[in-house]
Amino acid sequence: MKFNYPVLANPEICQHCKTCMAACPVKAIKDIDPRFEVDISKCATRSDCFSCVMHCKSHALVLKQADTKEKINILTG
Ligand code: SF4
Ligand code: SF4
Is the shortest distance between the CB of 13 and ligand 1 below 6 Å? Predict the structure, then answer.
């Protein structure tokens, strides 16, 4: 099954404010400074969600399609 998960499309403009982490209803985003880690298995439980992208005031995040078989994705920043 395919679903959407966040990626940092523009790492240079990420302010590291962590708003995306706070906005995630399933706490799928973790800060492993200087990067973020997305638990894909948690994100997949909200397959139509884009809360993190909507809350990013810097517009640094976009959604990308992935397979639910993936577990972890690193957002480089
Ligand atoms: S991706 Fe956006 S919301 Fe998340 S830490 Fe960076 S600037 Fe903040
Ligand atoms: S798309 Fe939704 S569930 Fe997935 S990481 Fe972003 S806020 Fe969390």
Answer: no
